[in-house]
Amino acid sequence: MAENLKCSICDKEATVHLTQIVNNKIHKVDLCESCAQKKGVTDPEGFSLADLMSKTPLTPTAGDSQAACSSCGQSSADFRRTGRLGCAVCYGVFKDLVIPVLDDMHAGTTHKGKVPYVALSRQSSQQQLIDLQQALSRAIADEAYEEAAKFRDQIKVFKQAEAVEVSSK
């Protein structure tokens, strides 16, 4: 059975467990219910994990420039302290700080969104059609008319199959 963790502040049994990754380092804080309420963990608007972590203060690392956003005035130190950006311009200004954080938290730094399982096949078939059309255009541009005819026929068969699929629904 798992060992009961103690509150990082008062040594009571911890019931709230928080984890934050900063500069590729994992910081964990365990709190009891009363300390969590005192620190504002139950109020997400006033909560900052960085403020709780007095044992591991988030300080700028050596060599970091103290850049500031030209739009809202937020500094890199403010970003490190709060973990939040002030405006949309901040994403560009603090790109070197934001990308490692996003890369650690997610599988990559590009948002791809979610695709419902049912729509996945439709999306891949649309991509196949686009690929065929691009290949047809390239073949025509290269004056490879025999290849272009093959691509044209494949597109025709593809569209007919798609029309049958739509009418059967």
Write the layout of secondary structure elements.
Layout: E1 16-22, E2 25-31, H1 33-38, H2 49-52, H3 76-82, H4 90-93, H5 95-105, H6 117-141, H7 145-167
Antiparallel strand pairs: 1-2
Helix pairs in contact: 6-7
Feature tags:
169 residues; Wheat Germ Agglutinin (Isolectin 2), domain 1; 3 domains; two-stranded antiparallel ribbon; 2 strands; 47% helix
Q: Label the structural class.
A: mainly alpha
Q: Provide the number of structural domains.
A: 3
Order of neighbouring strands in the sheet with most strands? 1-2
Question: How many alpha or pi helices?
Answer: 7
Oligomer: single chain
- Report the end-to-end length measured between terminal Cα atoms: 52 Å
Main beta-sheet annotation: 2 strands, antiparallel
Helix and strand run: EEHHHHHHH
Low-confidence stretches: 52-64
CATH class of the largest domain: Alpha Beta
Proportion of residues in extended strands: 5-15%
| CATH architecture grouping of the largest domain | 2-Layer Sandwich
Q: Kindly report the average pLDDT value.
A: 76
